[in-house]
Amino acid sequence: MKNEKLKMKNENEKIEVKSAIKVENLVKKFGKGDSEITVIDGASFSLDEGEFVALVAPSGAGKTTLLMMIGCVLEPTSGKIEIGGDVVYDGKWTVKDDRELRRKKLGFIFQSHYLIPFLNVEENVSLLPYQNKEPASVVKPRVKELLDYLGVGSKLHNMPSELSGGQNQRVAIARALANKPSIILADEPTAALDISRSVSVVKLLRKIAKEQKVAIVMVTHDDRLLPYCDKILAIKDKKIEIKDKVDEHII
Q1: Which residue, 116, 129, 202, 242, shows the most beta carbons closer than 10 Å to its own?
Q2: Minimal CA–CA distance to 220: which of 112, 58, 107, 49?
Q3: Residues 141-172, buried b or exposed e (16+ Cβ, 10 A)?
């Protein structure tokens, strides 16, 4: 009986879910006067840690603009951005150093791996934590654990030129996780892959989101990948529509 009560207590226990990013009424305009163009007009959404979501829209509808704003690369015209529980933009940047913000709270994955060719795998993945002044005693075991987790732990001292394309991609994912970010922004990471390899990458990203408790936003043009995502963020009429399931082609 005692064990049954304990089990029921554990089942009823609420698991705290932390917010990874919250965006409120985000607006981005380019130009002035008669040439002013509004690209994003009042986008609002929030994502929790562990969520894997797709960002979709027709070409030219503002995907890159939105991604660059939530990645703290492009300054919004107005609105509010909160990352990892901290307000980073509220009508203006609220942090002194946006580069430090990106190093500590954000991870990026691109179509190409962009590994530094004259650094080995360990050095590539360690770069951001060392820039954040973390000690080697903390960084080295974390990097080794990440590379083992992604199946390339044996390549620790190899150069990028000695790895396959898929292995380099996994190293790039490890690099994006190395600074323990609140959110990872993946800009069409499967664009150059066939559907079989694309699905493999998307399944890996989903696994990472759940197990590493990091929110991942993936820009994609391929609606065949959407069923693997928890949510779809679709840009429509310059705003964000959130879809919890995929029951039609929406790209």
Answers
A1: 202
A2: 58
A3: ebbeebbebbebeebbebbbeebeeebbbbbb
By residue range, what is the domain housing residue 236?
17-243
The per-residue pLDDT for range 70-124, each reduced to its tens digit, is: 999 999 999 999 998 889 999 999 988 888 888 888 999 887 888 999 999 999 9
The domain tally of the chain equals 1
What one-letter code names the amino acid at 162? E
In 27-45, which positions are buried (b, 16+ CB within 10 angstroms) versus exposed (e)? bbeeeeeeeeeebbeebeb
The reply to whether 107 falls in a domain is yes
CATH number at residue 129: 3.40.50.300
Residues 225/199, Cβ–Cβ less than 8 Å: yes
- Best CA proximity match to 149, nearest among 214, 105, 243, 95: 214
- Cβ atoms of 179 and 129 closer than 8 Å: yes
141-195 pLDDT tens trace: 999 999 999 999 999 999 999 998 888 988 999 999 999 898 999 988 888 778 8
Residue whose tokens read 């890996």: 204
